[in-house]
Specification:
By secondary structure, the protein is an alpha/beta fold. It has helices at 11-22, 44-47, 55-58, 61-83, 92-120, 132-149, 155-167, 176-180, 201-212, 224-246, 248-256, 258-261, 265-281, 295-310, 313-320, 328-346, 352-365, 378-393, 399-413, 463-472, 492-502, 521-524, 535-547, 549-552, 562-579, 589-610, 626-642, 648-665, 672-691, 693-701; strands spanning 33-35, 39-41, 52-54, 430-437, 440-446, 451-452, 460-461, 478-482, 511-515, 615-619. Helix 4 (61-83) packs parallel to helix 6 (132-149), helix 9 packs antiparallel against helix 19 (399-413) and helix 16 packs across helix 20 (463-472).
């Protein structure tokens, strides 16, 4: 039986394939295809890929081949458990894990038989449940494993239990593959309009098998995520040192008057936050030097004390009714609270070089696994190293998913629903780069969405972000490029909360919000836009998206003059078309996607100049995928402006911007689709500069700095 399959797939890939099959909804059957001869996909976006093989074009054999390989991969794993004398068959974890495996296998076979019969418009000659691969898995379970676990060998009941659990998925959560790929993990924290969590206990068990039952081969100490934790602890120590230094005057003044102020809850909590910073700064509390509480936990304490301080009655009263000049104590407390908030957001990462070093070492370790050939160009080098980076990380289990499952299960068992709050859940903002624009420096921030969301219909702005903006008033301006979709049920409230914040009188002078959708049919050039290859038709569609902002998912600040902005749209499209795409009559899909990316960057550059911006962020829900890729491309765009793209330091920092957020926050590689799209747009920009250096700078970049009301 197995000799038919010379190629094997990893256990993680097998589970993902079974998850895709089990999640098929027969009330609205999706298209299905095979990518790379080993991965089943049902999302329209992935089926658009050139390497996708379609069911309609290939028949069922290509699908069934992947199905067989998936069952055989699980069979191999279970056989290895049987052969391992150290397997603890009495463990509840082992029992639940294997039961979930079998439930998922049974449900996937049942669904695939129904689906293929539907697609072929006739019954399958051989049901999936009757294929040799499935029978072998069933036989092993019934004859060897069930008795070891001390449970009933009635697999039918396991299949029914698994089917009921999988069918309990909410309609919006049907993309099992997206959850396993860590794309929609925030929904583990959020409840629907009725207050019911999107995931329940039974469903959590089925997701958990994807991370509980795969142990990476090789030595334990080679796990890159162990190194990440140590680096992050050192960053916390460096961050505490930075904040204490920047707030030295405010802290000194605060403690001079501390005895007179301690009748305020605000004063007591600010004092605790400063003490937590002092403990976090102490190098003796670094995780490699102590078995006690490390720097990272003390820094987390600082953040929690600061948040509590910003919620006190005194603070809220003084914000609503500002104290008079005679109330020195109140002004002093507000000044310290806002300065601490600002420094929390704008602190530079203290471990950038260590992070770059870890990224390079991870790429080197993946060298033997790569499928691409090394190229001479910078872009080919980036793709080659990206493939190496991913090939190594794919050997390791998805740690964040397991941590989320355990946390949510514990809290749900206690009747508690914790909100999605990335700043508290280990994903803090920080300054990741400095962009040079002539003589002006612009701070580029890693800024996860500064929102907290517990119910899908509500999202609240974080107090730390409000405090930061209050400190910036009259001093600095920030451009928040919002990449969350105002048209998506998952992100609409977070997106609109940020847009509404700009209109608030306390924040309107220091905050500009620009929403650029990255999850629409137009952005991906699919559905009705898939065949619009003629350049003039595409460009007119892009302009129409700008004019129909609400319908297209865009948001532009009311501070922007509409007529001037429209002239910018016309000019930017014409110049990009002429100098980047050589005025070609037709543009294929990838070229159109690159056009959109470059247009977005030109728009951001124009906004920075128009509003005299001091800091910039590309903000998505967590800043690790869409935000990281946009930040990296913007960094490259500004480097092209200054003609400084060639040095090793710049390229290293580009890789840092691209890979570190996802590696440090989610313990994985950045999502491949936005990453490769960023690299493709980057290649277009590099080529345009190479071919049209002088005219590119003069006719594309420089005119954006001029008054848009002037004629071209």
């Amino acid at each position: 039986m197995r000799s038919k399959f010379s190629e094997k797939i990893r256990l993680e890939e097998a589970i993902e394939n079974l998850g895709v099959m089990a999640a098929i909804r027969m009330d609205s059957p999706p298209p299905i295809g095979v990518v790379g001869r080993r991965r089943l996909v049902t999302s329209a976006e992935e089926l658009e890929a050139d390497e996708a093989r379609w069911l309609s074009g290939e028949g069922v054999e290509s699908i069934l081949s992947v199905v067989d390989m998936s069952y055989l991969s699980i069979l191999d794993y279970l056989e290895s458990l049987c052969a391992n004398e150290g397997t603890d068959w009495k463990s509840q974890k082992t029992k639940e894990g294997i039961s979930s495996f079998m439930a998922l296998a049974g449900e996937s076979a049942y669904k695939m038989t129904l689906y293929l019969s539907y697609r072929l418009d006739r019954p399958l000659q051989e049901k999936v449940e009757e294929r040799d691969s499935f029978r072998a898995l069933q036989k092993l379970y019934l004859e060897k494993i069930a008795s070891k676990l001390g449970i009933s060998s009635n697999w039918e009941s396991e299949m029914v239990e698994g089917r009921n659990s999988l069918l309990a998925l909410q309609p919006e959560m049907k993309d099992f593959d997206a959850l396993l790929a860590d794309r929609d993990y925030e929904l583990f924290y959020i409840a629907d309009e009725k207050g019911v969590p999107y995931l329940d206990e039974k469903l959590l068990k089925n997701f958990k098998i994807s991370v509980d039952f795969e142990t990476p081969s090789g030595e334990f100490e080679k796990d890159p995520f162990l190194k990440v934790k140590t680096i992050l602890d050192r960053d916390a120590q460096g961050g505490a040192s930075y904040i204490l230094k920047e707030c030295r005057d405010e802290i000194s003044e605060f403690f001079k008057h501390a005895k007179k102020l301690f009748h305020h809850d605000l004063a007591r909590l600010l004092s605790r936050s400063v003490i937590a910073l002092l403990l976090a700064r102490n190098p003796h509390h670094l995780s490699q030097r102590t078995e006690g509480k490390p720097c990272g936990q003390y820094f987390h304490d600082f953040q929690l004390f600061l948040r509590q301080a910003l919620k006190t009655d005194e603070y809220q009263k003084w914000i609503s009714y500002p104290p008079s000049d005679l109330e020195k104590g109140a002004s002093l407390l507000l000044s310290l609270a806002h300065k601490l908030s600002f420094c929390l957001v704008f602190r530079p990462l203290a471990v950038t070089q260590e992070a770059i070093g870890l990224i390079h070492r991870t790429m080197r370790k993946g060298e033997k696994e790569v499928s691409l050939e090394r190229g001479d160009s910078l872009v080919n080098q980036l793709l080659f190293e990206d493939d190496k980076f991913r090939s190594f990380l794919e050997k390791y289990p998805n740690g964040p998913l397991l941590k989320i499952l355990e946390t949510v299960r514990k809290d749900q068992s206690e009747g508690i629903l914790i909100p999605f709050d990335p700043w508290v859940q280990g994903n803090l903002p920080y300054q990741i780069a400095t962009l040079q624009k002539g003589n002006k420096e612009i701070a580029l921030l890693h800024l996860p969405s500064p929102t907290r969301q517990q119910m899908i219909q509500r999202a609240e702005i974080l107090d730390e972000w409000r405090g930061c903006l209050r400190y910036m008033k009259g001093k600095k301006k920030h451009l928040l490029v919002n990449l969350q979709s105002r048209l998506s049920w998952k992100e609409s409230m977070k997106s609109r909360s940020l847009e509404m914040l700009e209109e608030h009188p306390q924040f309107s002078s220091q905050l500009i919000v620009l929403t650029l959708p990255r999850n629409t049919s137009f952005y991906h050039q699919i559905d009705e836009y898939a065949d619009r290859n003629h350049a003039t038709v595409f460009i007119e569609s892009l302009k129409q998206q700008m004019r129909n902002r609400e319908g297209g998912g865009f948001f532009f600040s009311s501070k922007w003059d509409k007529e001037s902005l429209q002239r910018f749209f016309d000019r930017a499209c014409q110049r990009i078309y002429e100098y980047v795409f050589d005025s070609r009559e037709t543009l294929d899909r990838q070229e159109r996607e690159d056009f959109i990316e470059i247009f977005y960057q030109c728009l951001v550059f124009y906004a920075c100049d128009h509003f005299k911006i001091d800091s910039l962020s590309f903000t998505c829900k967590d800043g690790v995928d869409e935000g990281a890729c946009m930040s990296a491309l913007s960094y490259a765009f500004f480097q092209i402006l200054e003609g400084g793209l060639e040095s090793k330091e710049v390229i290293d920092h580009l890789k840092f911007l691209l890979y570190w957020p996802a590696l440090s926050v989610r313990e994985r590689a950045v999502n491949v689709e936005p990453c490769h799209r960023m690299i493709s747009a980057f290649e277009r920009l590099v080529r345009a500069v190479h071919l049209h250096r002088k005219t590119f700078l003069e006719h594309i970049l420089v005119p954006f700095q001029n008054d848009p009301s002037k004629p071209i």
